[in-house]
Amino acid sequence: MRYQITGKQIDIGEALQTHVKSEMAEVIGKYAERPTDATVIFSKSAHEYVCESIVHLSTGLTSQARATATEIYAAFDSCNEKMEKQLRRYKRRLKDHHRKRDVPVEFSQAPSYILASSAAETAEEPETIEPMIIAEMETKVPSLSVGEAVMQMELAGAPVIVFRDEGHNGVNVVYRREDGNIGWIDTRAE
């Protein structure tokens, strides 16, 4: 397991790094079977310390947590508790599905674009209906089951996730609805 512990505009001492490695190793070892790497970033926002942690699992899932506190150790401990809660839920859901993933999640490449918002445009009528592309990049689309996609969306705290359904290899979308439920768009051609 690789650890990357950094500070943005603050110095991270050896004692804090040792504390982070030992505490994270305990939590990750308890709930995650094969973690690949963990990134912990400390920063300061006004009078509070901010701790952000990201753990990548060999199954392709990513767990993220963020916490703030007036002391740096307290910020990490709070962040680590949130991470532990997410990993505990993840492990419980895996047990509930009664199936183990034998192979890692496969990813396929897809183009990703950032379009200019209509609020950025002037009050004038646009000349064309073509949106202005601000950025163009590649993104990874995982092959997951619907349950794993919902789990990944909740672990990442994302409002939506696009994935390839393992059952029929079609592109699907799960998203959080305004009423709090989860929506699923299945593009399977009948």
Automatic annotation (TrEMBL):
- Record carries keyword Cytoplasm: yes
Where does the source fall among the domains of life?
Bacteria
Q: Name one Pfam family in it.
A: Ribosom_S30AE_C
Gene Ontology biological process terms in this record? negative regulation of translational elongation
Alphabetic keyword roster: Cytoplasm, Translation regulation
Which family would the database say this protein is a member of?
Belongs to the HPF/YfiA ribosome-associated protein family. Long HPF subfamily.
Primary role? Required for dimerization of active 70S ribosomes into 100S ribosomes in stationary phase; 100S ribosomes are translationally inactive and sometimes present during exponential growth.
Instruction: Read off the HAMAP family from this record.
Output: HPF (MF_00839)
**Under what name is this protein listed?**
Ribosome hibernation promoting factor
The root-end lineage is: Bacteria, Pseudomonadati, Pseudomonadota, Alphaproteobacteria, Rhodobacterales
What is this protein's gene name? raiA
